[in-house]
Design brief:
The protein is mostly helical. The protein has 1 helix and no strands. It has a domain of about 35 residues.
C-alpha cells in the first residue's frame, strides 16, 4: 500500500474514488430523508399587502 498520492498505484486511486463515492451517496441520502413529512404541524403565514410607503427624509448629510 502506498502512503503518497503521487506514488499511488491504480488500486489506491480506485479505493479513494470508491470511498468518495460512498461518502457522496451517504450525504445525498441523508439530505433526501431529512425532510419534514408531518404536514399537520406545519403553519402557513399569510401576509397582506398594505399601502405603499414613501420615505423622503434623509438622516445623513449630502457631501458633494
Amino acid at each position: 500500500m502506498s502512503h503518497s498520492l503521487i506514488d499511488a498505484n491504480r488500486t489506491t486511486h480506485l479505493k479513494i474514488a470508491c470511498v468518495a463515492l460512498v461518502g457522496a451517496v451517504a450525504v445525498v441520502t441523508v439530505g433526501i430523508t431529512a425532510r419534514v413529512t408531518d404536514n399537520a404541524t406545519a403553519q402557513v403565514q399569510v401576509v397582506k399587502v398594505g399601502k405603499p410607503a414613501t420615505f423622503a427624509a434623509r438622516d445623513s448629510a449630502t457631501i458633494r
